[in-house]
Amino acid sequence: MKQTTTGSYRWTICALLFFATTINYIDRQILGLLKPTLETEFNWTETDYANIVMIFAGCYAFGYVIFGNFIDRIGSKLGYAVSIIIWSVAAILHAFVTSTFGFGAVRALLGLGESGNFPAAVKATAEWFPKQERALATGIFNSGTSIGAVAAPILVPWLLGAYGWQEAFLITGALGFIWLVFWWLFYEIPSRHKKVSADEFEFIHQDNEHLANPAEKPIKWRKLLQLPQSWVFIIGKFLTDPVWWFFLFWLPSYFANTFALDLKKPSLHLAIVYTATTFGSIGGGYLSSYLIKKGWAPLRARKTTLLVVAFAVMPIILAQFATDIWVAVGIISVATAAHQAWSANIFTIVSDIFPKRAVSSVVGIGGMAGSIGSTLFPLVVGSLLDFYKASGNINAGYNILFIICGLAYLVAWLIIHFLTTRMKPVEESLKD
Q1: Does a structural domain hold residue 2?
Q2: H-helix segments, 298-324
Q3: Measuring CA to CA, which of 4, 56, 176, 289 is 20 to 30 A from 422?
Q4: What's the rounded Cα separation, in Å, for the pair 93 and 103?
Q5: Residue 4 lies in a domain
Q6: CA dihedral in degrees (31, 37, 38, 44; nearest 10)?
Q7: Alpha-carbon distance 17 to 373, whole Å?
Q8: CA trace torsion 148, 151, 157, 162 (10° rounding)
């Protein structure tokens, strides 16, 4: 494949996607860190909290329905801007609610807005990177989920102690508007961007893919749902997204309940867990990109990487036997890192096998499926934890949940493998 040393503006775009995803996850993660404070403030049970998480997840799923197609129609620049405005306003509004119902309402709006992040980011990556670099670029911007989750356990307890929970929501919510200024100034598709050299433009489009054409209509969802290629992403998200949401929203409580971790102070333990996910995201993207550069077919490289990380998640089943907090941190760190490696590659598969005019739509469909799974899973989590909490052994509930988490990725990989055994190119399938 042709290489070039002329031009690297695409990595500036990748940095913008990274910071947006970081802000996205700070705004999402803050609720889990403030959970003990808000439980006291509003007298929440585990089921009340699970319902709030479920409302967020349900609206996040619905938002994917809207934003996936919306971004394919209006483009990644404007679509991303609309998304971050909605979720930043919602994040700020958390500071003004005075009831459990109010929290449910603002979390619903936050879910709607945040759902635009990944359809826009994956589409922008498809527009700016050739296949050999996409998984690495996706891994880098997807590591923003990890950095956001690392920054939150340090930033939020400090804001809580210094100012209060309302100010924590106000300050973190304002970050999105700062990012928006840079996005509007620096982003445009390559064919319209003045800072992209001819060499870099040629490098970006070396795969001879159909260039994004704003006048070309997106493929209808009904047609996309008939393709096995779509179900690769749908299954991959439906079975594994709920695990990641469990890691986000319940790990702080797990460490607090099991190891008496004080969530009112900055947490090194949680910071290490979520820092590990950064290495997983970038490492997973690097591995499949490396295999492609060695001559592997893109799909084979992605699937091999997915299998490796599916096995890497499984040791989390052993977390139930950990009696030392640092042992638990080590086991869970490997699992969360593996999830992010999975995420980087499952997103990249979409841009590998679908034309650019369909990328956001497919990400929207799969993201909706993942969010539906994430809407249903909190019901299981809340019911299990309340049941075992009432019997005085809440850790038994966490142990069952860790077993589910450990097996989900291998099950998903097996289904993906059989779906892709005799898969035709998408454009060929669309003609059938």
Answers
A1: no
A2: 298-313
A3: 289
A4: 9
A5: no
A6: 110
A7: 25
A8: -110
- Distance (Å, rounded) from C-alpha 277 to C-alpha 283? 9
**CA-to-CA distance for 152 and 162, rounded, in angstroms?**
15
132 lies in a domain?
A: yes
Task: Compute the C-alpha angle 168/170/174, nearest 5°.
Answer: 120
HSE, side-chain direction, 13 A CA sphere, residue 29? 29
Question: What's the distance, CA 26 to chain centroid?
Answer: 12
Q: Whose CA is closest to 339, among 401, 290, 274?
A: 274
Other CB atoms within a 10 A radius of the CB of residue 24 amount to 29
Radius of gyration of the chain (CA): 21
- What's the pTM value of the predicted model, to 2 decimals? 0.70
Q: Into how many domains does the chain fold?
A: 1
Count of other CB atoms within 10 angstroms of residue 321:
10
The CATH number assigned to the domain holding 254 equals 1.20.1250.20
Is 1 domain-assigned? no
3-class DSSP assignment, residue 116: coil
Q: Are 20 and 117 in contact (CB under 8 A)?
A: yes
Domain that holds residue 24: 9-208+217-431
Helix (H) or strand (E) run with residue 151 in it: helix 131-162
User: One-letter amino acid identity for 183?
Assistant: W
Contact predicate 92/173, CB 8 Å: yes
**With 60 as the cut, is the pLDDT of residue 213 above it?**
no
Residue 109 near residue 90, CB atoms below 8 Å:
yes
According to DSSP, residue 57 is labeled H
Task: Please say whether the dihedral angle defined by the alpha carbons of residues 409, 410, 413 and 414, taken in this order, is positive or negative.
Answer: negative
Per residue in 398-420, pLDDT tens? 889 999 999 999 999 999 998 88
CB atoms within 10 A of CB 277: 28
Rounded to the nearest integer, the mean pLDDT of the chain is: 85
Cα angle at 316 between 315 and 322, to 5 degrees?
A: 100
| 207, HSE (Cβ side, Cα atoms, 13 Å) | 22
Residue 141, CA atoms < 13 Å, CB-side half-sphere: 32
Query: What's the CA gap between 200 and 133, in Å, rounded?
Result: 13
The one-letter amino acid code at 26 reads I
How far are the Cα atoms of 181, 254, 351 from residue 67, in angstroms, in the given order? 21, 33, 17
- Give the CB-side neighbour count of residue 339, counting CA atoms within 13 A: 29
Structure tokens at 378: 């909190």
Contact 332, 278 (CB under 8 A): no
